[in-house]
């Protein structure tokens, strides 16, 4: 699903690369955790997958897309195949829950009939039945993140990137969010989650990729947060 070959990313004006000669693969259908201290390169990795930045050298493959050589007009197709969830939810504050999710389909030109069907189905899937009319400010943090997940998956992406999705949530709420991500993964979506939450990583025992200073220092198939 994801294949990096000797990927180096040096931002202009920075003295050391944010990612340094990275090579690894994440298979289709996997749930992988990305761990490592702040500044170790996790967000940079996500940006490269989305072609929001270009690596200085190396090759990146995401699904059927050769990201490096992808033409500009093909970039929207790549991005449509990747759902994204962030620590700060990034909901549209003026739209209600259903409209936040519907918007993701509207901008890619899906017909109204598809949207009418997919939105309630997805809200139920993430545990938000009965909340469709609520505004974001009327939701708890956990509910806001469920909306963000619904928005990210409503188009059934092959890959879901979650950048510290539980970073603003208490442990119990975080567990619920990870359960939703696990369900999405079991339905066939590859999930990559950057996290600092050792409990979640230890309870899931999935692939653990550890970054340090832009290098991959650990790649365990059924890993734990600390060295297991
Ligand atoms: N736009 C940029 N320009 C220059 N340097 C950058 C830029 N974005 C990130 N960096 C640098 O690249 C390195 C990796 O940063 P990145 O944001 O990928 O780390 P991270 O592991 O996601 O950190 P966090 O856990 O805090 O989100 C850091 O040294 C950072 O300062």
TrEMBL record:
<keyword id="KW-1003">Cell membrane</keyword>
<dbReference type="InterPro" id="IPR017871">
    <property type="entry name" value="ABC_transporter-like_CS"/>
</dbReference>
<comment type="similarity">
    <text>Belongs to the ABC transporter superfamily.</text>
</comment>
<comment type="function">
    <text>Part of the ABC transporter FtsEX involved in cellular division. Has ATPase activity.</text>
</comment>
<dbReference type="GO" id="GO:0051301">
    <property type="term" value="P:cell division"/>
</dbReference>
<keyword id="KW-0472">Membrane</keyword>
<keyword id="KW-0132">Cell division</keyword>
<dbReference type="InterPro" id="IPR027417">
    <property type="entry name" value="P-loop_NTPase"/>
</dbReference>
<dbReference type="GO" id="GO:0016887">
    <property type="term" value="F:ATP hydrolysis activity"/>
</dbReference>
<keyword id="KW-0547">Nucleotide-binding</keyword>
<protein>
    <recommendedName>
        <fullName>Cell division ATP-binding protein FtsE</fullName>
    </recommendedName>
</protein>
<dbReference type="GO" id="GO:0022857">
    <property type="term" value="F:transmembrane transporter activity"/>
</dbReference>
<comment type="subunit">
    <text>Homodimer. Forms a membrane-associated complex with FtsX.</text>
</comment>
<dbReference type="GO" id="GO:0005524">
    <property type="term" value="F:ATP binding"/>
</dbReference>
<keyword id="KW-0067">ATP-binding</keyword>
<keyword id="KW-0131">Cell cycle</keyword>
<dbReference type="InterPro" id="IPR015854">
    <property type="entry name" value="ABC_transpr_LolD-like"/>
</dbReference>
<dbReference type="InterPro" id="IPR003439">
    <property type="entry name" value="ABC_transporter-like_ATP-bd"/>
</dbReference>
<dbReference type="InterPro" id="IPR005286">
    <property type="entry name" value="Cell_div_FtsE"/>
</dbReference>
<feature type="domain" description="ABC transporter">
    <location>
        <begin position="2"/>
        <end position="227"/>
    </location>
</feature>
<dbReference type="InterPro" id="IPR003593">
    <property type="entry name" value="AAA+_ATPase"/>
</dbReference>
<dbReference type="Pfam" id="PF00005">
    <property type="entry name" value="ABC_tran"/>
</dbReference>
<dbReference type="GO" id="GO:0005886">
    <property type="term" value="C:plasma membrane"/>
</dbReference>
